[in-house]
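Researcher: Next entry in the queue.
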Amino acid sequence: MEKKPKSPKAGQVIFKGYHQHQSQPLPPSLEELIPEKHLVRIINQLVDSLAIKVLEGAYRGGPDY
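Model: Structure for this entry, 65 residues:
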């Protein structure tokens, strides 16, 4: 039996899932499209290393934000 995803609680911060290395039928994965030494890879590493707790506290969420 499959587990259903939990419903978000009031005030809970929810971000859309992002998986850099996921495969997609069309277009090919970003890993294949971006050259190995491209600047965007450095920026991606920087963004992944950020502590976002402060941003989460300020984020209201929802469709009209």
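Model: The chain has three helices and no strands.
Researcher: Noted, moving on.
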